[in-house]
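Exercise: predict the fold of this chain.
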Amino acid sequence: MSGPENSHRPPRKDCSYNGQELEQILPYKDMFKKGTKPEQLLIMKSQILPAMFNYWASIGKDPQSEAESRDWAQSLSGWCANNWRMSQGAGRKLNSWKPKRTDLIWRDREQDVMKEVARVLGHEMVTTQTPRFLGARQTALSRILACQTAAEQTALDAEVERILREGNPEEIKRRLARKFHKKRVHQAMQDQYREIGLSSIVIAAYTREDGKLVVDAYDCISELTGVALPSFEQMYSNEMLTMKASLLKYLLAIRAKQIQGATTIGATVNAEGPKVALTYTAAGFPILPRPMSTRGWKKDHWETLFMDYMGCHYKLATGGKSSHPPYGDIQQQQMTFIENKYLPRNMKIAQARNLKQDQIATIFEYIGQRQEMHGPVQAFRFKSILKRTDKGKEILAARYPDANAGADPDPEHHRNADAESEGQQNHGTTANPRGRPTRGKKVARAPRPSDADADPKPEREPEPDASADAEHGITPEAVYVLVEQDVANQMQIVGLQIPNPCNGPADGSPQYAIPRDIYGTFLQQTTTS
């Protein structure tokens, strides 16, 4: 043992320190176990080591040299680290995923990283295909990270925690799903079987980078058990196909609600603080309350509203693929992403945490005035979006759901004389992405699961392709149109089939979720008649 022996009580067979020694350090056990690595190091240096060394000095057991003192300290630190760990039983395993700070720097400051890579390699300009790029990129990221100020490091750590809490941006999820979906699921199934004998069949779905849903089945039971049988999906193909169809139907309903804004977009800060709720148009455009009561607001209240509003618009502009605007690229070339007419004069867009409170307030006052003059559809818009691929990134035109309907009625804006015309704005109807006016209240709702369960003929459900990699496209336009009882009665009169109400008896008057193609047929019939 590296530490001194104690004559008062012989050390236990299973412990490096005797009872008197443990009494000196046990008061710090809970604090040590709950702390992070830096906090544990601080507790060790400022409390545990002084307490133990003071005790040794009181009984006349002082180290004979600096090297021996260091040896005792290292032994005690190692003992605490090994014995005072949070219990992690087999049933309490945590997800080890955590976003890296270097990944966020690459995402938000790609131009700065590329410049630093060029300096590392001694080139004037580099691309991701430049020889030795990957190694030089890691060096460049480390340099940028080392040069950050304390405030920048704090902001970066806060962003890491936010992503850990809310998840990766949508485009990153899609890229990673394409690469690792099979490997991740199979690895989890193998670990569960080898550790606790858990056999499982997984039916899962992910979204491809082009926006299409892919429903897949994962089965390695026969492989893990070593029994030569066909896979579960091969033996029960009809049941698996029905399950895939049910999962697809459920996900389509969720996707439709997300795209069309079937739930209120909340800008609620906390239970005690000020609140503002963004309502939305039928196409999902956010609507600022006018007037907007912001008395007593603090910086974090404005930041929340800014992130909700801008995230909603960017999701519309990307067709539902991402709600995280590329602020780093926008700062580099703002006019490429946002036309001047949508922002106050000389206003620069950045991450909400990098804007001052009065700047955010000025932005929303300006957008609110545009909303009163031109409506919520033209209050604010992204001009372009960023598409990231393995080979780099590409700037594309925004794909708003009303791209062919609705132009700013103020084309002679004092800072945007060369703005492109976007067409004439329609009044009294809401245009869908195919240019046809939609009458009635359009939302993205699907029949309740109970309605689907009541259907005794599963072959009528939308079914994916029989192959395991069946792919299903989905667009940002509405999957269902919500109609009231009077419209449903008119549709029955013209001979169209109406499903059961999608709301319950306690939810007010009956409402019906009509598939979009059937509702379009109804519009054509009523128009021609």
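Check your answer against the key: Confidence is low (pLDDT under 50) at residues 1-13, 88-94, 262-273, 404-478.
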